[in-house]
C-alpha cells in the first residue's frame, strides 16, 4: 500500500506535462531487474521526449547505464536531447549509436522507418543533418566541432591559467602528511592572494579592493580542513577574508539557503566595469566593517560548484581531478562578464592531494585514472601550460587529437577512456555493445555489472532534529519507525570556532533558527519543529558499512565530515 506522499509523487511523475527531475527517477525503466519499479518510468518515457543535461558528469559505468536508457528512448520512438559544453566526440558517438539501435527496433516493430536526424546546437548556430546510415554521424559531428572550435577562438579571452608550483617530498611518512597538507593549503592561500591583486574590482563607496573567488578541492573532508585552515591562518597584513564551505554533505535546508544566497550574490551581469557599487547587505556590511584595503570573499567548494551553478567569480584556485574539472570550474570565472582578460585568473595546483602523497592512482573519484590506465601526476608534465596561459576553454575536451598519449597527457587520458566506451569490437554484458548488438538485454547481467550509481545504494539518509537543545541524527527504519543513529554512526558536535575564525565567516548559518523560521509558533512548537526537520533536515552519509567505522563531526558551518585521522589520510 503506497503512502499518500508517495502516491502524489508517482502521480506527478506520470502526469506532469513537463517533468524536471534527476535522472534517477527515469533510470528504473532499464535498471530494474525484479519487481515492478520499471513500470512507471517506462510509461513516462513512452510518452515523453528525453533531455539529459551535463551528460559527461557521470562515471564510465554510469554512462553505460545511461546508454541503455537512451537506447530504450529510441526503441519507444522518442526524441533525445543531450546537453553539455564539454562532451567528447566518442561519448557523443556512443550515445548516437545507442539511440540509433533503439530506433531501428522501433521501425522494425511498426514496419515503417522513422527518419533519424541529428541536430547540433550551440550559441553560434544550429546544424541539421540526416544520419540514418552507419557512418553518417562521425563526419557530421566533426564538421560541427571544427566550426565550434573556430568560433570559440574568436571569442574574448575571459580565462587564463597558471600552474601553481608546490614542492613534493621524495619520501613520505605518515607523520609528514599533516605538514604536507598544511603546506599545500598555504600554497593555495598564496595563489588566492596573487589572483586577488590581479583580478579585484574597486568598491565605489570605500575605494577598497574586493574580489570573489572559488577554491575547488576534490573531496568533502579536505574541503572542510582547507576552510578551517584559511579561517585560522595568517594572511597578508592588508588583506581581510570572508569564507564559506560549500559541499553536498550539508543539511538540506542549510544547503538550500546557501545556494539561494550564492545564486543571488554571484549574479554579476550588471558589474561589467572595474568600479562596482556593492549593495547586497551582507557583502556591504563586511566591506564597511573590515579594517584593511583588500577583502576576499572565498567559496571553498567541492565539485558541486562545477555543474548547474550560474555563478560569476573573479578568480579560482583548482585542485585538479581531471581536465574536465578544470574546464567546468573555469566556467564559473567571469561567467557574466565579457571583457578580454590579460592576466591569469585561474591557478591550477601542480599536484592534487593524492598525487602529492604519491598515491599510484591520483586522478580518480572524481576522475578517469585507474590502476590499469595511469597518467603522469605532475601537471607541469601532463598539461600544456602555455595553452592554459593563452586561454582556458572546452576545445581540448571536445576536439579529440588524432594520436593519443594517455600516460603522458591528462586530456588524452579522458579521450582514451571515452574511446574505450565507444569501441565497436567490444562484446559481452559489461559493455554497451552487448546491450545494443547482442542478446544481453534479455538478462539482468548488464545491470548487475554496471549498476547505475552503485555506491548510492549504500548511502544512509538521516534527518537532523533538536532534542533538549542538542542536534540528533535519526533515520526511518521500517517497522521500528524513527531511530536515533547519532551514536551508532559516531557523530559528535564539532568544536566551537575561535573568535578570529568566527569573524572571518562570510555567512553564519544556524539550523535551529532556520527550522523555527519555517515552523508555526504555537503550543506544540517542538512537534512542529520535528515535522519541519523531517521535511528539510535530510543529510546523507556515504556507505553505511564504512560510515559506522569512522568518527564524524557536525557543524552548521561545515556540515558533516570525518574526524581527521580517518582512513582517507593515506
Automatic annotation (TrEMBL):
Domain named CRISPR-associated nuclease/helicase Cas3: residues: 210-338
Protein name in UniProt: Putative CRISPR-associated helicase Cas3
Gene Ontology BP term (one): defense response to virus
Keywords: Antiviral defense, ATP-binding, Helicase, Hydrolase, Nucleotide-binding
Example GO molecular function: ATP binding
InterPro entries per UniProt: Cas3-like_dom, P-loop_NTPase
Species, as recorded: Anaeroglobus geminatus F0357
Pfam families xref list: Cas3-like_C_2
Amino acid at each position: 500500500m503506497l503512502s499518500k506522499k508517495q502516491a502524489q509523487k508517482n502521480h506527478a511523475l506520470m502526469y506532469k506535462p513537463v517533468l524536471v527531475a534527476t535522472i534517477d527517477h527515469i533510470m528504473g525503466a532499464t535498471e530494474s531487474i525484479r519487481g515492478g519499479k520499471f513500470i512507471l518510468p517506462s510509461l513516462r518515457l513512452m510518452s515523453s521526449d528525453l533531455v539529459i543535461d551535463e551528460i559527461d558528469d557521470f562515471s564510465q559505468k554510469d554512462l553505460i547505464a545511461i546508454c541503455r536508457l537512451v537506447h530504450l528512448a529510441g526503441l519507444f520512438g522518442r526524441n533525445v536531447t543531450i546537453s553539455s559544453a564539454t562532451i567528447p566526440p566518442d561519448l557523443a558517438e556512443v550515445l548516437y549509436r545507442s539511440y540509433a539501435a533503439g530506433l531501428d527496433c522501433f521501425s522494425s516493430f511498426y514496419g515503417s522507418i522513422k527518419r533519424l536526424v541529428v541536430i547540433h546546437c550551440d550559441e553560434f548556430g544550429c546544424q541539421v543533418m540526416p544520419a540514418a546510415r552507419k557512418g553518417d554521424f562521425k563526419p557530421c559531428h566533426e564538421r560541427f566541432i571544427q566550426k565550434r572550435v573556430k568560433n570559440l577562438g574568436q571569442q574574448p579571452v575571459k580565462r587564463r591559467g597558471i600552474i601553481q608550483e608546490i614542492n613534493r617530498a621524495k619520501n613520505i611518512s605518515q607523520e609528514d602528511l599533516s605538514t604536507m597538507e598544511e603546506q599545500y593549503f598555504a600554497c593555495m592561500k598564496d595563489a588566492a592572494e596573487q589572483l586577488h591583486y590581479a583580478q579585484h574590482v574597486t568598491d565605489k563607496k570605500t575605494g577598497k579592493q574586493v574580489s570573489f573567488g572559488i577554491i575547488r578541492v576534490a573531496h568533502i573532508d579536505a574541503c572542510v580542513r582547507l576552510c578551517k585552515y584559511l579561517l585560522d591562518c595568517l594572511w597578508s597584513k592588508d588583506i581581510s577574508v570572508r569564507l564559506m564551505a560549500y559541499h553536498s554533505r550539508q543539511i538540506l535546508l542549510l544547503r538550500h539557503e546557501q545556494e539561494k544566497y550564492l545564486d543571488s550574490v554571484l549574479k554579476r551581469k550588471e558589474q561589467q566595469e572595474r568600479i562596482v557599487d556593492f549593495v547586497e547587505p551582507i557583502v556591504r556590511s563586511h566591506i564597511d566593517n573590515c579594517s584593511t584595503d583588500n577583502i576576499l570573499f572565498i567559496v571553498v567548494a567541492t565539485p558541486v560548484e562545477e555543474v548547474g551553478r550560474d555563478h560569476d567569480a573573479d578568480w579560482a584556485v583548482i585542485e585538479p581531478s581531471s581536465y574536465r574539472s578544470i574546464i567546468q570550474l573555469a566556467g564559473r570565472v567571469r561567467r557574466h562578464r565579457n571583457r578580454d582578460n590579460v592576466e591569469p585568473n585561474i591557478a591550477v595546483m601542480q599536484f592534487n592531494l593524492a598525487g602529492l602523497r604519491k598515491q599510484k592512482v591520483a586522478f580518480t573519484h572524481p576522475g578517469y585514472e585507474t590502476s590499469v590506465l595511469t597518467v603522469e601526476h605532475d601537471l607541469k608534465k601532463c598539461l600544456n601550460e602555455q595553452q592554459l596561459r593563452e586561454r582556458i576553454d572546452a576545445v581540448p575536451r571536445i576536439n579529440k587529437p588524432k594520436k593519443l598519449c594517455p600516460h603522458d597527457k591528462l586530456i588524452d587520458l579522458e579521450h582514451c577512456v571515452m574511446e574505450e566506451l565507444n569501441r565497436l569490437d567490444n562484446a559481452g554484458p559489461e559493455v554497451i555493445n552487448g546491450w545494443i548488438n547482442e542478446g544481453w538485454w534479455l538478462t539482468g547481467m548488464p545491470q548487475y555489472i554496471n549498476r547505475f550509481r552503485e555506491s548510492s545504494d549504500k548511502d544512509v539518509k538521516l534527518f537532523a532534529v533538536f532534542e533538549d537543545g542538542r542536534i540528533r541524527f535519526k533515520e526511518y527504519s521500517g517497522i521500528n519507525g524513527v531511530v536515533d543513529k547519532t551514536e551508532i554512526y559516531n557523530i559528535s558536535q564539532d568544536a566551537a570556532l575561535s573568535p578570529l575564525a568566527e569573524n572571518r565567516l562570510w555567512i553564519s548559518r544556524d539550523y535551529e533558527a532556520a527550522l523555527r523560521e519555517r515552523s508555526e509558533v504555537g503550543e506544540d512548537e517542538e512537534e512542529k519543529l520535528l515535522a519541519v526537520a523531517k521535511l528539510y533536515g535530510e543529510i546523507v552519509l556515504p556507505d553505511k558499512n564504512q560510515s559506522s567505522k569512522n568518527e564524524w563531526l557536525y557543524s552548521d558551518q561545515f556540515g558533516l565530515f570525518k574526524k581527521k585521522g580517518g582512513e582517507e589520510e593515506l
